[in-house]
Amino acid sequence: MKRNFEDDKKNMVVVEGSYAVADAVKACRPNVISAYPITPQTHIVEDLSQFIADGEIPNCEYLNVESEFSAISALVGSSAAGARSYSATTSQGLELMHEVLFNVAGMRLPVVMTVVNRAVSAPINIWNDQQDSISQRDTGWIQLHAEDTQEAADMTAQAFKIAEDPDVMLPVLACMDGFILSHVYEPVILLDEDLVAEYLPAFEPEFKLDPKNPKTFGAFADPHSYTEFRYLQQQAMNKALKTIEDAADEFYDLFGRHYGGLIDTYETEDADIILMAMGSIVGTIKDVVDKLRAQGVKVGVLKVRSFRPFPAEAIKNAIKGAKVIVALDKNISLGLNEGALFTETKGSLYNTNVNIPIIGFMIGHGGRDIPMSTMEAIVDEAKKVIDSGITVESQFTDLKEELL
Amino acid sequence: MKEIRIHGRGGQGSVTAAELLAVAAFADGKFSQAFPAFGVERRGAPVQAFTRINDDPIRLRAQVYEPDYVIVQDPTLLEVVSVESGAKDDGVILINSDFEPEHFDLNTNAKIMTVNATKIALDIIGRPIVNTVLLGAFAGASGLIDPESIKDAVKERFPGKVGEKNAEAIQKAYDMMTEA
Q1: How does it assemble (chain B) (predicted)?
Q2: Which one of A167, A328, A395, B34 is CB 3.0 to 4.6 Å from B18, fit for a cystine?
Q3: What is the pLDDT of residue B160?
């Protein structure tokens, strides 16, 4: 689904990535925004509070809270009452929300939250990696990752569409790389509010808190029924696999932009080497792919948009013709020495008929820049695996030995 | 693709300059991207910001290591930062200085150019804010961008008298570079 960028140019404006996302949130007509400012998410909530102050988001309450814990707790109430609810956070703020994230998902509340991905403390670091959202893996939230600011903006509308689908009713973390996307100025098409209204119907949940028709959310489930609640959450994640694809397709029909559904591929069809990654690094890899393809290297990139639900089947189908797979992770599971994308891809292939060597590189921690030369060196390592098998399964990239 | 690296100190508007350049380049019909070398912002500390300008959409997210153009807002940075690092042989390093280019002994094959942006800013704007002035000089030195697009971008960001004064300073710097 090729875009005609020359046509798109007429509708583009050069804005900061944070503004593009805040504007997209506005177009989705939320009823409650509850957030606590934290770098590098700050510009999004500043822009949103400005919109509210200027009366540009009707029927919306902006809650000033004293912490991220309160920010997300407030949305438990608002979403249960049937209000479209939004927040944004990052890093330590997201970690502080951790307990409540389980509640939001368990109560099947379709809250959408932008995560402006940032490293976690200690040592304190305000720059980008994806450890914060990856660490929320098992909270029951859908987790999507955007490659550029246009996708981050468009993903906001898709996130509400997916979350509020009656078959799904799960919260969504819409992730964008901190600074790299949140603070970049580049041309984007701001979302047309009328088109978004057509794409995203009003939020009318089947169950909501209503004094006239009292209900309880998330109160108590004893051993007799708790298992079934967990099972149904997993069933909803299974259904979300299709909903995420549908949301991308419907978005394309209305807006003419498509970034893949669960995954996207670039030059993978005849590729010997496939690099897998999430987020803004995919753009850099595409430039590396073009450069290496011109030199005759058969390399491609598989972008994972949906980390949860994990698109095992889509990944398997996309990589099955390759000779080696490389998973790139801006996160690490300490004690395993692997990033999540590597571990999960490897695990999901184990009992299948696809048996391709896969290696992992942990990269870009705490904002360490990722030049094209680093990516080319990784491709060189992948070539060695084709020739002589795996020597190192998973490793840190660009380690500075002099600092150790 | 053309890559520009702007060196300044915190508070001198390097990031704003990179953003305005991206806005102006897009107005000229190009694709563009601007971003800072993200630091913990402190007034006076050396900072870098980057702009890419290209005919096609820009996907690359790495910092700029081999710039076609380097803009140096504050010549005292030369003592602490290797501003010439990676500059292309056919590139240009534009320094805000009242010295002639020959004064600067940098380890580069790139062409060194100077403009007394501080004087222009003081004369016209009345304050030593040089970021927009240097964009005018850059437009003149590079031929890469229409000075009117830069003036429009600046006037949109800083409406009213401030924008008008900046536009005048931009034109002055542009003329000095093209007449030189």
Answers
A1: Heterotetramer of one alpha, one beta, one delta and one gamma chain.
A2: B34
A3: 95
Q: Which of B20, B61, B149 to mutate to test the interface with A (most CBs of A within 10 A)?
A: B61
**Interior angle at CA B45, CA B39 and CA B47, nearest 5:** 50
ipTM above 0.85, yes or no: yes
Contacts B23 to A, Cβ<8 Å: 14, 185
The tokens for A322 are 């390759």
Q: Which residue has the tokens 């001198």?
A: B12
d(CA A186, CA A376): 26
Report if pTM > 0.90.
yes
A101 vs A118: CA distance, rounded Å: 18
Query: Three-state SS across chain B?
Result: CEEEEEEEECCCCHHHHHHHHHHHHHHCCCEEEEEECCCCCCCCCEEEEEEEEECCCCCCCCCCCCCCEEEECCHHHHHCCCCCCCCCCCCEEEEECCCCHHHCCCCCCCEEEEECHHHHHHHHHCCCCCHHHHHHHHHHHHCCCCHHHHHHHHHHHCCCHHHHHHHHHHHHHHHHHHHC
Does residue A369 sit at the B interface (CB-CB below 8 Å)? yes
Rounded distance, CA A90 to CA A92, Å? 6
HSE-up (13 A, CA, CB side) for residue A313: 5
Distances (CA, A) of B60 to A119, A281, A319, A397, B27: 21, 8, 24, 19, 21
Chain-chain contact of B63 with A369 (C-beta, under 8 angstroms)? yes
Query: Which letter, b or e, does each residue of B20-54 get, where b requires 16 or more Cβ atoms within 10 Å of its Cβ?
Result: bbbbbbbbeebbbbbbbbbeeeeeeebbbbbbbbb
Phi and psi angles of residue A21, each rounded to the nearest 5 degrees, phi first: -70, -45
DSSP alpha helix (H) spans, A193-301: 193-199, 226-255, 281-294
pLDDT, residue B44, reads 81
Evaluate if residue A289 carries a pLDDT over 80: yes
Q: Which CA distances in Å does A357 have to A273, A321, A324, B15?
A: 10, 12, 5, 44
* Cβ(B89)–Cβ(B109) below 8 Å: yes
Q: Burial level of B77, CB count in 10 A (0-12/13-18/19+)?
A: buried
CB distance A348 to A315 below 8 Å: yes
Question: Between chains, do B61 and A185 touch, taking CB under 8 Å as contact?
Answer: no
Per-residue model confidence as pLDDT tens digits over B32-62: 999 998 666 677 888 999 999 999 999 999 9
Number of neighbouring beta carbons within 10 Å of residue A194: 9
Residue A333 is classified by DSSP as B
